[in-house]
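Batch manifest, entry 17 of 40.
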Amino acid sequence: MSEDSTRVAPGASDATIEQALFEVRKRIHPRSVTGWFARWRWVLVWFTQILFYGLPWLSWSDRPAVLFALEERRFFVFGLVLYPQDFVYLTGLLIVSALSLFLFTAVAGRLWCGYACPQTVYTELFMWIERVVEGDRHARIKLARAPWSASKLARRGTRHLLWVVLALWTGITFVGYFTPIRTLLAEIVQHQLGPWELFWVLFYAFATWGNAGFMREQVCKYMCPYARFQSAMFDKDTLIITYDEARGEPRGSRSRKAEPRALGKGDCVDCGICVEVCPTGIDIRKGLQYECIGCAACIDGCNQVMDRMGYPRGLIRYSTPHALELDLDRRATLRRVLRPRVLLYAAILLAIVLALGATLALRTPFRVDVIRDRMLSRIVEDGMIENSYGLQLMNASEQPRRFRITIQGLPGARITGPDEFEVDGAAVRRVPLSVRIAPGEGQPGSNPIRVDIHALDRPDLQVSARSVFFVPR
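Output type: structure tokens
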């Protein structure tokens, strides 16, 4: 709770204190900053957004390279076709994502939050638009305090117009992963957009506009659960953004030519730039706080001041609590960072990624489900006993394939009717199957059988499904 949340009520005695239940939000106007970490942040912004906005436009075999066709219950990821039965791969992907987050956090804190989280990325884009239209920090503060005028209205209107355009294009791109984006744009132009497509375009656009334009640090501080449990993954050998208190204190302003030690001061000139550039408005000199998203803007800002003052860089830097306590150099610090916990995370993550990749590489590109007919069995001509089945053949490749069906496990069992079927690429076909045996060839009751499906163009590809053949008692 801030100082503003506790106040003395008018006319009250010194012993009577009125205390607010919540802190009133103060608008944060981050100052632009340049530096090594800022450049890397923009590299990640460009990389993630080129990936996000570009993938729906890529074509692969006359279809979008990445398409989640929910109505057809198929996911296309370049040459890979996944069905609901492949849910295990989504589970593996979620496990890899979780372990990656644990690994990055154990190594260097909130790297994901500071560089690649969608909230950070879109906030960076929206703030860039804000700076282009309204100016840097001091100009924006001045504009916010100024009375409404035609100039202020024009600037604010332009800013919001550009925000809305970016948010709407983001919503269209998001829906473009589920409806081919060229088809989606044609539907928009022709005013034929379906209700669910319209809902998700507007919902995603509104969420982007609200979160990146208005809520910003509030999402990171109060809505994101990661801010609350991140400390459980930190220890004293985790690289975090730290202020070197022993070097910086006591802080205070001084001339560039003055020797700080002669004045009894540390290297911190108390300029406040570390606070001005912080997107969540914290003062890193007070120690690590859960609001810190690890963007390292304060490092870039402080390094600029150190350069101007002629002091060594690194007053604010990535370091570990142990490194500060023991005064370790960089090499010793990195050796302690690569501790057993980190190596274990990395080994488990590598094993899961290799297993997931091997499973995908060795995955048979078709499968079969056998569904028995409701009529258990019937007697046909010549006293033959017949069971009927329905085979659901799923071709997970994008080339048409022809399959041959054989029956194993019950001597004398043979297929009546066609035993070869063709299935289109990335399609599902249900075919009837009738199996007969001569009287006396099977045991009364259920007899286990195996249905084998062979790809005629690839003899090495085979899948099997088990079922039963029922013989009347």
